[in-house]
Amino acid sequence: MSQLPVDCLNEIFEYLEDDRFTLYSCILVNRLWCGTSVSIFWRDIYNYSTSNFSTLIACLPNESKEILYENRIIISPSTSKFPTFNYAAFCKILSINRVYYKIRGLLRNQQTVSSQNLNNYIHIMVREIFKMLMNQITSLKSLVFFLFSDEIFCLYPGAKDCLKNLTELSCSSDIPTELFYQLSQTCYNIQSFTIEFERIISNSGIEDLISVQRNLKSFDMTLCYDLTVDGITNIIPSLISKLPNTLIKLDLYGGDNYFSLSFITNFLNLQELKLSFSNDECFVNFEKLQYVTFPQLKVLIIREKYPRNELLIKFLGNNGKNLREICIGDFDGCNDNSLNLAIAKCCPNLKKLSTGIKCSELETLQIIFNSCKNLESIKIWCGGDFLSEKEALEAFAKYSHNINELVLYHLFDEWLELLPEELESFFINWTDNKSQKSFSLVVVNYDANSLDTNHENIEIIKKYIKLGVIKKFKVTNFDDEEYN
């Protein structure tokens, strides 16, 4: 395998990007493997350890090292030898916050740095690192900065070439307007733009940047709770109006901030629509959306509060046939049976569903399983007025068709603990009804009575993992983005 061409090795090592231990082992095999895998290992600055940053400092040009020395920032002997590779050139994903955080930790451990001068030393070292990165990175893919800084790094030599092919940008609204403006002079091909709107909004700079985008595909906007009235009623709508109609993904987290949603009707090519508001009044303008058909829409996620049932049902009537994923009212926990029945009727091609079924409406889950035969994953809310784990498992074993993942989502207290004999009965029924079909079982834990807290239940699950009935078992919480 060591004789494989570099292109083949690259293809293989790409699969190891998230497996740092194995990727590091590949670096140690031989020179060819090392040269091929090291660029992947150093691609994402989020993965840099403190020692990685020490190595990065060792890559600084001599003039930068002289500046550090003149300011009494002494590089430790372990970083004084110039590294084997120019590691800075490998970086493709750059987080400004991560650089500040790691450099702060690194300098705190330097005996020559006093606490009184720490912030000044951080600024000096970060500036020299940014100079090097802008000069050495030939094509940055992703840039993240949610930390206020006066450092206009995009003015450094080489920055234009470094940033010209940027495709992902994540930032907050309170960074200097000049930084947004300079980015707008260079970055025309951003495809994914994530922004958090704080009280301070560099509106003219953001407008400049949005206006020049030629191929923006994804826009993710979070509105903080302390936004001014002017920000909500004037600045935000003005910025939104600049969004190009090339969008296929739109994610809005508005909290309890109210602004018109009618602008969504401009994006008829949307494939994913995600809305999250904590106030019902934020959906007043959803009336206009109920009549619009989005022919490409595949994913609809509306968390916390959601529009009136009649509006949402009308929307599903127009758009449900193309939908592949639905999640409505996750945190609110108030799904109405009429809405669940509308999902069963209007969305026959769903592959992924998150829904709440009341204890008294168990037959609705049967209707969903019978109508949505392409379902591959279902997240069933448990506890409170919703189904118990026992009811959810029994319905899953009896009525599901092609589903290969069951998520038990504990929004509320589980009144009745699932007994080991009930869990065993579920697995017996599943194997009898589904023959050799395996599935993944995920428990999103909220209270002390979910099935995973019983040792006997865990032993039963281990048994069926060995038998091949369960291909994956996971217990997680609401912080897990994959199941949130």
Automatic annotation (TrEMBL):
One of its GO terms (biological process) is SCF-dependent proteasomal ubiquitin-dependent protein catabolic process. Transmembrane segments: none annotated. GO terms for cellular component: SCF ubiquitin ligase complex. InterPro entries: F-box-like_dom_sf (IPR036047), LRR_dom_sf (IPR032675). It comes from the Eukaryota. This is F-box domain-containing protein. It comes from Rhizophagus irregularis.
